[in-house]
Amino acid sequence: MSRRWKRLGKRLTRDRRATAAIGGLIYGALRWIHGTQRKAEGSSDFTEILTREHPAIVALWHGQHLLAPFFRPTSLPYVALLSKNADAEINASVVERFGIRTVRGSGGRVRDKATEKGGARALIALRRLLGEGVGVCMIADVPKGVPREAGLGIVTLARISGRPIIPSAAVTSRRRVVKSSWDQTTLPLPFGRIAVVLGPPIHVPPNADEAMLEEKRREVTRAIEDANRMALDLAGDGR
Fold first, then answer.
1. Dist CA 231 CA 207 (whole Å)
2. How many domains does the chain have?
3. What span, in angstroms and rounded, lies between the C-alpha atoms of 17 and 14?
4. What are the DSSP E strand ranges found in 47-140?
5. How many angstroms separate the CA atoms of 165 and 161, rounded?
6. Residues sharing a CB contact under 8 Å with residue 236, sequence separation 6 or more, in sequence order
């Protein structure tokens, strides 16, 4: 049965009409769920922070990104880095409906030469967009890698662009964790509280060597985890 569903999923992601339809349904569901949430006291003023630091690299974890498109100044342009996987077309269909542009590439774990080249092209494209005043939304951990551990891609982008990384988290009080997923995907449920936390900006010097990049990578990991823990505390559980 699982193989049958996988084959069906692959066929759907290759069909543009099916991809658009699924993306539209997910987009509508996310808008409805977000509309039922109450803002948790103590949440960050994301509009003020992201406007002040724009264009910045907004960093978050896999599995906690579903409501992230709502927490940005809609008057400012943004682009999202999406992985090159079977779900990429559906993800792009959803993200672009929020008015966010997309770039495909890797978040920082090199598996082969093709992946390395694709990741490098994505970073070059994102650096150019940051230089043009476009903010970047980037999931910091790498698909199928170690969950909640930042990859080198995000700190490399900060180094070559000169723009800060903003660690972030958005958590709802009513949620369902998909324990079978590699990243422990969290599905937001309606009629709860939502907490949004943005941490202090992290800057990476343009002359950072490998040792400093590794140090900054660990700093980003800790900062996103800190933001996530704070958001969990603010949102609480249940209603």
1. 33
2. 1
3. 9
4. 57-60, 78-82, 101-104, 135-139
5. 11
6. 40, 173, 193
Give how far Cα 20 sits from Cα of 2, 41, 46, Å: 24, 36, 30
Q: Is 188 helix (H, G, I), strand (E, B) or coil?
A: strand
Which CATH number covers residue 148? Answer: 3.40.1130
Residue 140: give the domain boundaries: 2-235
pLDDT band per the 50, 70, 90 thresholds, residue 111: very low
- For residue 42, what pLDDT is reported? 98
| Structural contact between residues 168 and 224, judged by C-beta atoms closer than 8 angstroms | yes
Is the CB of residue 61 less than 8 Å from the CB of residue 224? yes
Mean pLDDT value across residues 151-169: 98
Give the Cα separation of 70 and 190 in Å (integer). Answer: 15
| Spatial separation of the C-alpha atoms in residues 159 and 140, rounded to whole Å | 15
Q: How much is the pLDDT for 113? A: 47
Q: Please, what is the Cα angle at 103 between 19 and 50, to 5 degrees? A: 110
Which single residue is written with the structure tokens 């070059």?
124
Q: What is the pLDDT of residue 116?
A: 56
Average pLDDT, integer, range 3-9: 53
**Which pLDDT band holds residue 146 (cuts at 50, 70, 90)?**
confident
